[in-house]
Amino acid sequence: MKKLSARRRHPLAALVVLLFALAATGGLYAALAPAPKAQADDSAQSLAITQGKKLYSVGCATCHGTSGQGSTDGPSLVGVGSAAVDFQVGTGRMPAQQPGAQIPKKKNIYTQAQIDQLAAYIASLGPGPVVPTKDQYSPAGADAAKGGELFRTNCSQCHNFVGRGGALTDGKFAPSLKGVDPKHVYEAMQTGPQNMPSFPDTTMPQDAKADIIAYLHEVDSSSSPNPGGFTLGTIGPVSEGLFAWVFGLGAMIAIAVWMAARTSKAKKS
């Protein structure tokens, strides 16, 4: 005991304890501190949100409010998620030129980097659907036949059975899906823009969305066969019914007139 007490009273005892404490603290920090990459990612995300807020203040706040809370001229953006921003801004629908029954697609005025910044800011206002990855919306490996069944069941009522679009009520319309980026098709199903219902993963799984995109890619291909003959614009029963009335009924009337004329001549002779 006397020897232990003497060691404690040694002049270097306090220094040894201090060094031991510093070493233990450093070891714990090294084990528990965030990784440099995670810190860099957080810094980049914060910068994107800051830049996105600046873009929002210039191009969006007039209608959607200074904090995305919405106004009489535009809905709230809290909780719409980054996918809605990427779709609306990426297709040029937003910012809108003027109010109307439906905002049409137009030329995009933002770069993809700016769209990403806007999306980061809107996503920071509240959780919502996120921008999909390429693996999610790529049609490679998807089942186009199954996608056709899903599309005809859930989408053809408005978009026509091959996605050529169609008219709705009160000046609204379902836009054509010809040539639309697969990512934007996926985002539209996620977010339900304007008059379209949304199809979250709980309603329509990711692989089902990819199947629909594969079907649209198949029917959009110029080399895809058309076993039914003339497509007549592939806009459905309107053009087909018009063809039947104009040419089918017209041919029947012409035949009836010709037969009547022949019968009249035969009676006279």
From TrEMBL:
Q: Residue span of the signal peptide, if any?
A: 1-30
Q: Does the keyword Membrane apply?
A: yes
Entry's transmembrane regions: 242-261
Query: Which terms are listed as keywords in the entry?
Result: Cell membrane, Electron transport, Heme, Iron, Membrane, Metal-binding, Repeat, Respiratory chain, Signal, Translocase, Transmembrane, Transmembrane helix, Transport
Where is it predominantly found? membrane
Q: Which SUPFAM superfamilies match?
A: Cytochrome c
Presence of the UniProt keyword Cell membrane in the record: yes
Q: Which InterPro entries would you find in this protein's record?
A: bc1_cytC-su (IPR009152), Cyt_c-like_dom (IPR009056), Cyt_c-like_dom_sf (IPR036909), Cytochrome_c_Oxidase_Subunit (IPR050597)
Location of this chain's protein in the cell: Cell membrane
Which ranges carry the Cytochrome c domain? 47-126, 142-220
Which reactions is this enzyme annotated as catalysing? a quinol + 2 Fe(III)-[cytochrome c](out) = a quinone + 2 Fe(II)-[cytochrome c](out) + 2 H(+)(out)
According to its UniProt record, the EC number is 7.1.1.8
**Protein's membrane topology:** Multi-pass membrane protein
Tell me the superkingdom of the source: Bacteria
Quaternary structure and partners: The cytochrome bc1 complex is composed of a cytochrome b (QcrB), the Rieske iron-sulfur protein (QcrA) and a diheme cytochrome c (QcrC) subunit.
The name of this protein is Cytochrome bc1 complex cytochrome c subunit
Species whose genome carries this gene: Actinacidiphila acidipaludis
